[in-house]
């Protein structure tokens, strides 16, 4: 069983884990279902490593978590961007940057929703 370290369980039953140094939301749906099953099994086997979030905790903490994660994504983007700008960029650089941008886009959408801006533009 993979060691997920400490994790938070949200009131809706989903989890927030640390993945590649960033907070990562794992709902029990779609493409996340397999990871959710792994995290759930880990949580059941390691109840002392699970923090249950209260609804008010989530509302207060999540925007700060998202801002921190976006700053970390910016930091992690520098190397592949430098390789693209100055060369030589590798397919790994392009893949890494695409993955980071996809994660940032999802976080910006979540932040906009939390702030009551469901149709905020992607910057």
Quick summary:
The protein is α+β, with helices and mostly antiparallel strands.
Task: Describe this protein's structure.
This protein has 123 residues and is α+β, with helices and mostly antiparallel strands. It folds into two domains: 46 residues, no CATH class; 60 residues. Helices cover 56% and strands 13% of the residues. The protein is built from three helices and four strands. The protein has a four-stranded mixed beta sheet with strand order 3-2-1-4. A hairpin with a 5-residue loop joins strand 1 and strand 2. Helix 2 runs antiparallel to helix 3. The longest helix is centred in the middle third of the chain and has 32 residues. The chain is globular and about 50 Å long. The mean pLDDT is 87.
| Largest sheet: number of strands, sense, barrel closure | 4 strands, mixed
Shape: globular
Low-confidence stretches: none
Rg is: 16 Å
Helix content range: 55-70%
Strand order, sheet with most strands = 3-2-1-4
Individual helix count? 3
Number of domains: 2
Task: Give the percentage of residues in beta strands.
Answer: 5-15%
Order of helices and strands: EEEHEHH
Overall number of strands: 4
Structural features:
four-stranded mixed β-sheet, 56% helix, globular, 123 residues, single chain, alpha+beta
């Amino acid at each position: 069983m993979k060691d997920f370290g400490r994790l938070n369980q949200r009131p809706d039953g989903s989890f927030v884990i640390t993945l590649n140094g960033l907070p990562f939301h794992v709902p029990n749906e779609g493409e996340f279902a397999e990871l959710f099953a792994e995290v759930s099994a880990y949580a059941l086997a390691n109840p002392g490593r699970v923090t249950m979030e209260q609804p008010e905790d989530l509302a207060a903490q999540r925007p700060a978590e998202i801002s921190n994660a976006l700053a970390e994504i910016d930091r992690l983007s520098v190397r592949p961007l430098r390789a693209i700008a100055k060369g030589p960029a590798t397919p790994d650089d392009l893949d890494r940057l695409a993955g980071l941008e996809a994660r940032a886009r999802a976080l910006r959408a979540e932040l906009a929703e939390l702030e009551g801006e469901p149709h905020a533009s992607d910057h």
